[in-house]
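Contributing new records

If you add data, match the layout below exactly. Sequence lines come first and carry their own label; structure lines follow with theirs. Keep one chain per record. Anything else will be rejected by the validation script.
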Amino acid sequence: MEGIISECLGLPPDFLPNYKNDQSRDVLLGLHYFPATEDENLGKPAHEDHGCFTIVYQDEVGGLQVHKDGQWIPIAPSKDTLVVNIGDVILIKTLRTSLRVKRIKENIMASFDIPTIDVSPFFRWNQGNEEGKKKGMEKMREACVDYGFFQIANHGIPLDLLAELWIHV
């Protein structure tokens, strides 16, 4: 994933893997959130992801929101896709984005479709699909710059393995 994102941002494919090659900041978490009750609303407060990227596999309940242009936008779960959040490291190091820490007070809800990217053209078994790869790279770059989020479809992870994930979390 790091190599694909590096290429999509116009960087050498080994940029992100080499940038953090000591693996000292890699974290793998399996979190299971229980649905809110009528009396309370449980969840993680507004925050930024400080690493390179965060991959989220949502269940059908959802609850993930993105803060964009002053509005909270719910990300509807999409079956068999992974949501990729572009973290501060990529924004600062590759997009040269100046991040300012600000307190988020708005509670405005909006709606939009998060960009979904078919990554199958990037796999070895699909070599020769350069047009599909080029389109996917451009769409991923636009999503990184414009949204900081995208969904991955046809990610190559066996669906039975993803289903098993929910059993163990």
